[in-house]
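tool_call: predict_structure(chain=1)
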Amino acid sequence: METSNLQLYSHSSTSPLGRTGGALYIHIPFCKQACHYCDFHFSTSMKKKDDMVLALAKEIQMRKSEFELLDCSRSYNKIETIYFGGGTPSVLQVSELKFLIDTVYENYKVSKNVEITLEANPDDLTELSLQAQSRSIFEDYRDIGINRLSIGIQSFFEDDLKMMNRAHNSAEAMQCLEEATKYFDNISIDLIYGVPNMSNDKWKQNIETALSFGIPHISSYALTVEPKTALKKLIQTGKIAAPRDEVAAEHFVILVEMLEAKGFIHYELSNFGKEDYFSRNNSAYWLGKKYIGIGPSAHSYNGVSRSWNISNNSIYLKSIQDDKLPNELEILSISDRYNEYIMTGLRTIWGVSLDKIEKEFGLDYLSYLHKQARKFLDDDLLFIENGILKPTKKGKFLTDGIASDLFYLNLE
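tool_result:
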């Protein structure tokens, strides 16, 4: 049935976050090596890592009053999720992660049920586990409050990992998950599909391997060719074949069918979780919650404006040391906020509430949405259920393109 999972999770009742909770993202801008496809901000030099940890802690302190302005300072209104992203947060020592977590607790009110996620790479986790010898690195993570891991597996096949220039190999991916599942229930892994020379059978094997570990959450993305990446250059020089959209579309269908058959809920375009295992951090973004981003290139949102820190480690460090926040601010127009809601809403099972469109943006926006959505409704790419606009199964892979056609560009 097209709407079976959707009916279980209505817009009003399924948010994995509290009504007023806040989110804190901490960007760790370091990686051991650059993956060919990645265009995120990071440095492969660790020379400034110690200074960066101190600067991140200082920015956490500097942004305290800003968080209070989000109306998240009351006793019932606390930080519900802390997310270490990157870059590669697992390059930090446990003591450095603990220092940052302690800094958050010292300066903010934190929910007793806070979700604390650490993004990690298999090579870091297996190397650290070997170094720890008598005690698992996963025990150390658990002891400092980390209760969720997001592990960048990407593929279980050696040739895929080499093509992506991942730092780990297939054996490390398997070893890492075997060890991690002994200590953590709440684990997510990343998988990439649409990889050149990845057959449908090979993609199915990747999914089956992931499922064999009992992982309750999987994030999966099509391989995309971003400007100024090594992958772009390799394709331009003919060393690697370009990803094909039709292959990615086939892989997406396989992904959805296999995971839903195993009880996963396809709650966001690229994310699948068992019940009670949705990512609370990412859900904050998709549901329009307010959040603060700490570190170089990190973004923040307070409901009326968006800001972002400079994507330069040296300038970021100098600015924080001089007691200045190195960010730019954009006040969002009503059409900006409408467009953002359309994009994030359509990507999730919560969809776009027509009632919310009318109440928050006005009848002109609602009329425009009805007009623009008509062709997608007629083509069975969108449907309306209980006043909520959502993509059909056929429309899910086309969500981003559909959303762009629903954007309101000329109102103001």
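agent: Residues 1-14 have pLDDT under 50 and may be disordered. Proceeding to next step.
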